[in-house]
Design brief:
homodimer, alpha/beta, 14 helices, 16% strand, DNA-binding, HTH_LacI (chains A, B), transcription regulation (chains A, B), transcription (chains A, B), DNA binding (chains A, B)
DNA sequence: GGCTACAGTCGAACCGGTTCGCAACGGACG
DNA sequence: CGTCCGTTGCGAACCGGTTCGACTGTAGCC
């Protein structure tokens, strides 16, 4: 592999001159620049990333920490990852993917060893163990997901409170008076999946304010349990005319469950989910839903992170906490409740 | 951040001694080793990855190239990625995720700049543009997917020919005499998705050998097109009693389509898919299927890649091309054909 | 004509590790 | 008591970039 020394020799200049000719950080005569560029082409020179990182203290790599936990719905994560990855590349950064079960150790490893210039954290928990480590790291961090304590990091998330209100409002306006909210498994909540109860609390509150009955239940994240949970819910609350589904696996299982019970949406039951449009199209989910905009959140996180890395924001500039406003995508799965 | 120089000073030894004490590559007295280790702990020393890469020409990072193309089913890729990522970590390697649309440029970039010690290529096409670049790279490569030319790389893939035969045999044994094979969109085939016609050709051949009729058709990879395609298929071939589904999106859309037509599997139609068990459970797909074992393939690829990186295989040792034998997972969606 | 200013280039130092060659030391042995 | 050898540690070089300070030559200016 050619080094910059080889390039310099071929062009008949010193190493430093070759370096300046390529970086443009000092004035270089047109003639020399041409010779250097030609040498680069002939030798197929590419700078050694490790050497450059050592010299500049910049790796042009962003660490992406994604946890794939039991009881969590993996495919939803993919879209966040792609949003992050694609945006990073547009801005000239590569992605170091860390799917380690032990996120804290992994985070410490890649920050301390200076493998990355910044960190994006996915599925952030209410009290995320990784946060203290991230704060003490030399690199800036951006989160997708809202923790209890946001100091020292930039935070991006869907406005789950508003999402809960929008879902309830939508069914209330159509005339529904008894609905159920299908949430994530208990495990996810216990683990600190704050978005679950952020949406749920807001939905409960909105239901109370409008005087309608809302049954919050949780359902599993996999078959066959999730099907069983959905059936149990419909058995337990026969008066329910609307379903708010805040659980991707449940949304995916719902068509089959409804079919087996001889029910149709929206004639027998109105359904509103909370997942991305991309997700709905990929899995043929026919329900209206709150768009969760994962690619957009990933994009926002990386943009801000890179601004911090490149010092475009003063180090003392306050960190941002930004919420994306949820939007309802109508797929025709809601209507007036059946009149019993 | 503490350097090895700081550690050496704190322990009262030279830099080289500190290095040897930590690597164990030379004999060091117990006393000195203790002092060095203590200094490491006190200073919170972690070796700088860039510096180490520069000195050792080893980054302990594996490049993972995954293309997310139009008309391809993204979530299936996730499982390959996780298999690769988790296995790599177990073996001490991190993953540089490259989801670049321009795979060739990205591949050249990360190999030439020595960011990675090896490369894993996902969704490999029949004549993959990335392959010549990978062969000319200094780092070894492992593929998941079978290209036309396997020289210079280790290749792992499902035995799609056998998969096609197993699917046809299965329905033939149950008494079916007219079946359809739902493949990927034409685009995927044109792009060089060899697995599509490897399975298809073998299925056609098996059908001919057993004297049964097989209609090969392709279907889109997204809603609403895939639903339309499935309906068109069932309209065009009313005599079909069995469906072989080699298209994840079609499998995901099938329950709804069958429901709308008032059909049930296996009573009205036998269905066999080709996707992973994990996939089936996540999306509540009720059909028997050929297990595609994505995590296993990813794991095999990384294992072999690391063996090459670490020189456990002689450089001239022939490269392997290994096929995983498909297995049918019975979910009760097949039976004897309805007697018309 | 002498001075300054500046464009253009070079040499050397540095980033933070690893590794090779060598020397000092102490014990065993003849 | 001298020699030989194994153990242990040190100094220096090296990996491949970047960057700072200094030096040279030429143009512009008074």
């Amino acid at each position: 592999m050619a080094t910059i020394g080889d390039v310099a020799r071929a062009a008949g200049v010193s190493r430093s001159t070759a370096s300046y000719a390529l970086s443009g950080k000092r004035a270089i005569s047109a003639d020399v620049r041409r010779r250097v560029e030609e040498a680069v082409r002939e030798l197929g020179y590419t700078p050694n990333a490790g050497a450059r990182a050592l010299a500049t203290s910049q790796t042009m790599v962003i660490g992406l920490l994604a946890q794939f936990l039991e009881d969590e719905f993996a495919p939803a994560m993919l879209q966040y990852m792609l949003g992050v990855s694609n945006t990073a590349r547009e801005l000239g950064y590569d992605i170091l993917l860390v799917s380690d079960a032990d996120g804290t150790r992994a985070l410490r490893r890649i920050t301390d060893s200076r493998m990355v210039d910044g960190i994006v954290l996915l599925n952030v928990a209410e009290r995320d163990e990784r946060l203290p480590i991230l704060r003490s790291a030399a690199q800036p961090g951006a989160l997708v997901g809202l923790p209890a304590d946001c100091t020292g990091v930039d935070v991006f998330d869907l406005d789950f409170e508003e999402a809960g209100r929008v879902m309830v409002d939508h069914l209330h306006r159509l005339g529904h008076r008894e609905v159920a909210l299908v949430s994530q498994p208990e495990h996810v909540i216990e683990r600190g999946g704050a978005y679950v109860w952020r949406l749920q609390n807001a939905a409960v509150e909105a239901a109370r304010a409008r005087g309608i009955t809302l049954h919050p239940v949780s359902a599993a994240a996999h078959q066959p349990d999730v099907g069983r949970d959905l059936n149990a819910l419909l058995d337990a609350h026969p008066g329910v005319t609307g379903l708010l589904v805040h659980n991707e696996a449940a949304a995916a299982a719902l068509p089959t469950v409804l079919h087996e019970r001889g029910l149709t949406a929206p004639e027998d039951l109105s359904v509103v989910g909370r997942y991305s449009d991309e997700f709905a199209r990929t899995f043929s989910l026919p329900y209206s839903s709150i768009e969760s905009a994962p690619d957009r959140l990933g994009r926002m996180a990386v943009r801000q992170l890179v601004r911090r890395i490149e010092g475009e924001v003063a180090a003392d500039e306050p960190h941002v906490v930004r919420f994306v406003t949820p939007e309802l995508v109508d797929r025709g799965s809601t209507g007036a409740p059946r009149t019993t």
